């Protein structure tokens, strides 16, 4: 009996702890970094944010902008030669030891920039794009404004501290999502190691190792993360530890930005916070199919339809929305908006409206609605309807109404005239009788 009680208590404790753990996973994680943001790639939904619009210093995450512009403006196979100005940098900072007069391809410099965080590579690329570093910085700020980075300002191509060189976690998210539209950028930031062969001025190969501990086993296994595929680290004493990152599992991708984290050996808050946020996204949410092209969503009346036929509506494309893994179906609602005054004929595939999905009042996805079949026009109904509308059209009704009013007024006046004539006739008759 005692053994049974012990086993029962053990089971209660085990399942009780599992339940508590599962409940905690649904709660938003506690983040130590000053600011952070997490976004699901496919839907663009912000899953978590903390001080996302607070001004922070980006450090070497600046190089995402430098790389993006180089990819947009230069050919990866194009060669660039380092100038004296480009290599005149603080050698205590991160660099790949580029010598004045050394020549590299743009792609090699991009690997040096994004894996090794080479400040000298940033300058060489900047000059290659704009002719001078100052002109490149102008281009950085111009491009930032174009893509919607409303609270950012750049002063250099590599991220050295400057009070006027700042950004926000939200702006860095915008930048990273834009940069990741490039296949070359995606390939580079997901690479753990890369080798640049010897040059005419440097006899040894340069082995570049990614600073991103989420994906590079050479940095140890403490922060390796399944599915991590980029993007860029950053650190200065003023900026703290910064990390822009991307991870993908089973077709579900997340962008994460953590800014101004701290480092107390052996813990690096930028990596710890990023892992917490990725776990929160992958463990708590999933893509759920809510619309299928073969599913009838609604029907709608069609003007002039033959036989009173209706339009049958289905989704133009399949739609999957991001929902909690254990979601309440009662909280998933829809709102259908239709085009005004739908008239026959309707062809299969015509866009007639849209359906928007809401979870607990928040919009989670939208898809266009199309006709699932043809709807023919009834010419008899159309002609009758056209004539009816013509008759009661305002341009017809207005003069017609005026004519009716005039006729009524004339009829009233005529009746009054006749009434007066009768009364006069009766008055004359009475006078004759009185004579």
Tell me about this structure.
- The chain starts with a helix and ends with a helix.
- The chain is an alpha+beta fold.
- It contains 11 helices and 18 strands.
- Helix 2 (63-73) runs parallel beside helix 5, helix 2 packs parallel to helix 7 and helix 4 (106-114) crosses helix 5.
- It has helices spanning 2-26, 63-73, 84-87, 106-114, 119-130, 133-146, 169-179, 183-189, 269-284, 379-391, 394-434; strands at 35-40, 46-50, 79-81, 103-105, 193-196, 206-209, 228-236, 240-249, 252-261, 263-264, 267-268, 285-291, 296-301, 310-315, 319-324, 332-338, 351-359, 362-371.
- It folds into 2 domains: 27-284, DD-peptidase/beta-lactamase superfamily (Beta-lactamase, 3-Layer(aba) Sandwich), CATH 3.40.710; 292-376, Peptidoglycan synthesis regulatory factor (PBP3), Domain 2, CATH 2.60.410.
Write the layout of secondary structure elements.
Elements: H1 2-26, E1 35-40, E2 46-50, H2 63-73, E3 79-81, H3 84-87, E4 103-105, H4 106-114, H5 119-130, H6 133-146, H7 169-179, H8 183-189, E5 193-196, E6 206-209, E7 228-236, E8 240-249, E9 252-261, E10 263-264, E11 267-268, H9 269-284, E12 285-291, E13 296-301, E14 310-315, E15 319-324, E16 332-338, E17 351-359, E18 362-371, H10 379-391, H11 394-434
Antiparallel strand pairs: 1-2, 1-9, 3-4, 5-6, 7-8, 8-9, 10-11, 12-15, 13-14, 14-18, 16-17, 17-18
């Amino acid at each position: 009996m005692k053994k049974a009680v012990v086993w029962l208590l053990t089971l209660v404790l085990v399942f009780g702890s599992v339940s508590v753990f599962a409940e905690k996973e649904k709660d938003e994680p506690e983040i130590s970094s000053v600011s952070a943001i997490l976004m699901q790639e496919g839907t663009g939904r912000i899953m978590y944010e903390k001080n996302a619009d607070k001004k922070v210093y980006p450090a070497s995450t600046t190089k995402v902008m430098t790389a993006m512009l180089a990819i947009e403006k230069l050919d990866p196979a194009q060669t660039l030669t380092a100038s004296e100005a480009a290599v005149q940098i603080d050698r205590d900072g991160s660099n790949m030891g580029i010598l004045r007069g050394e020549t590299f391809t743009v792609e090699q410099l991009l690997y040096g920039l994004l894996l090794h965080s080479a400040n000298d590579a940033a300058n060489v690329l900047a000059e290659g794009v704009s002719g001078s570093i100052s002109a490149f910085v102008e281009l950085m700020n111009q491009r930032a404004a174009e893509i919607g980075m409303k609270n950012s300002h750049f002063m250099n191509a590599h991220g050295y501290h400057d009070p006027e060189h700042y950004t926000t976690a939200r702006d860095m998210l915008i930048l990273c999502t834009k940069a990741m539209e490039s296949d070359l950028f995606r390939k580079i930031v997901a690479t753990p190691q890369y080798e640049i062969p010897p040059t005419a001025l440097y006899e040894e190969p340069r082995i570049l190792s990614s600073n991103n501990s989420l994906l590079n086993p050479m940095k140890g296994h403490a922060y390796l993360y399944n599915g991590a595929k980029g993007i860029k680290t950053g650190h200065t004493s003023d900026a703290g530890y910064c990390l822009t990152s991307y991870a993908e599992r089973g077709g579900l991708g997340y962008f994460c930005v953590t800014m101004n984290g701290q480092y107390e050996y052996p813990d690096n808050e930028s990596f710890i916070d990023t892992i917490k946020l990725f776990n929160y996204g992958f463990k708590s949410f999933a893509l759920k199919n809510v619309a299928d092209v073969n599913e009838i969503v609604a029907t709608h009346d069609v003007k002039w339809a033959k036989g009173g036929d209706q339009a049958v509506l289905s989704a133009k494309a399949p739609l999957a929305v991001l929902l909690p893994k254990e979601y309440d179906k009662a909280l998933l609602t829809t709102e259908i908006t239709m085009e005004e005054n739908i008239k026959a004929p309707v062809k299969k595939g015509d866009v007639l409206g849209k359906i928007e999905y809401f979870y607990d009042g928040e919009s989670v996805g939208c898809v266009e609605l199309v006709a699932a079949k043809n709807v023919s026009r009834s010419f008899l109904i159309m002609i009758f309807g056209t004539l009816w509308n013509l008759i009661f059209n305002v341009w017809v009704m207005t003069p017609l109404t005026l004519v009716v009013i005039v006729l009524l007024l004339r009829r009233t006046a005529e009746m009054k005239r006749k009434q007066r004539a009768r009364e006069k006739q009766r008055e004359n008759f009475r006078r004759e009788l009185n004579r």
